[in-house]
Design goal:
The complex is a heterodimer of chains A (198) and B (76).
Chain A lengths: L2 H12 L3 H23 L2 H18 L9 H33 L9 H5 L3 H12 L2 H12 L4 H8 L3 H31 L7
Chain B lengths: L1 H9 L8 H16 L7 H34 L1
The chains are: A mainly alpha (198), B mainly alpha (76).
Chain lengths: 198, 76
């Protein structure tokens, strides 16, 4: 989105123009959902956080600064909502860990993207992304998948551009190593026959 | 090595949210955006603004009265 169009949209949003909201919604909804779905690895949670992100935009629309950058603003809100959600989930899980241990199914789940991947390479990337620490995953998602600039992604994560560059560099290395490991393990895994049912 | 990796990430498929829910969210946001901006309650603000100077004036009057009373007692 070019700066003039963005400034005009921000101005219209500040005046409560619903058509401007539609344009912003159409421009960012899928990108935000893709980001949240890969971050949370749960479709239902991603849908909830996405809705809350849009409601926050509407709530703050009249107080937006004229120079607000909509992309970074929306991704920042979405990320902060995820951080809050994660914090509450950690507290909840620590409180119910004993009960979960009694549950007969593993709480680890396959990411929706991994399940829907159309090629083996895609599946391996999704699996490697899902296994990465959140801090690494989010920078790869913001820069690599959502296409944000380094400066914008740094704003979203609340770190300096230099810190982002370092984090991105480490995240790329981690991902690359994970893919190499996965590739090396794949032929070996293909040769393993499943255990017969007892 | 890292540039092809970033290209692979950029080419990953996007995901679409549930259509019905997306439509509901859009409609809800539009409705909320069109709602007139809520004004701060003017009466309550005026009350808050009036109370503070009134308390200050009463305090000053009380202080002056106390000083005058003290002078009267001392001079009698």
């Amino acid at each position: 989105m070019d700066p003039d169009t963005e400034a005009a949209l921000v101005d219209r949003l500040r005046h409560g123009d619903p058509d401007a909201f539609d344009l912003v919604y159409d421009a960012f909804n899928v990108r935000l959902f893709t980001f949240l779905a890969r971050l949370t690895r749960r479709r239902d949670v991603a849908e909830d956080l996405l809705e809350e992100t849009w409601l926050r935009l509407v709530k703050h629309a009249r107080r937006l600064r004229p120079d607000t950058r909509l992309g970074p603003w929306l991704f920042t809100v979405a990320r902060n909502l995820y951080v809050s959600f994660n914090r509450s989930r950690v507290l909840e899980e620590s409180a119910t860990a004993g009960l979960i241990a009694l549950w007969p199914f593993s709480p680890d789940r396959v990411s929706p993207f991994e399940a829907a991947a159309t090629s083996e390479l895609e599946r391996r990337i999704e699996r490697a992304l899902a296994a990465m620490p959140t801090a690494s995953r989010e920078v790869l998602l913001l820069v690599g998948v959502a296409g944000l600039s380094h400066a914008d992604a740094a704003d979203v994560c609340g770190i300096t551009p230099e810190a982002l560059r370092q984090r991105l560099h480490r995240a790329r290395e981690t991902l690359s190593r994970a893919l190499d490991r996965d590739e090396a393990a794949a032929p070996a895994m293909r040769g393993v026959t499943p255990c017969p049912n007892r | 090595m890292s540039e092809p990796l970033m290209r692979l990430l950029a080419d990953l498929p996007v995901a679409s949210p549930d259509r019905a829910r997306a439509d509901r969210t859009r409609a809800r946001c539009r409705a909320r955006l069109m709602r007139p901006a809520s004004r701060p309650p003017a009466v309550a603000n005026t009350r808050v603004r009036l109370w503070q100077p009134m308390i200050a004036v009463l305090g000053v009057v009380y202080l002056i009265a106390a000083i005058v009373q003290a002078f009267l007692v001392l001079s009698s």
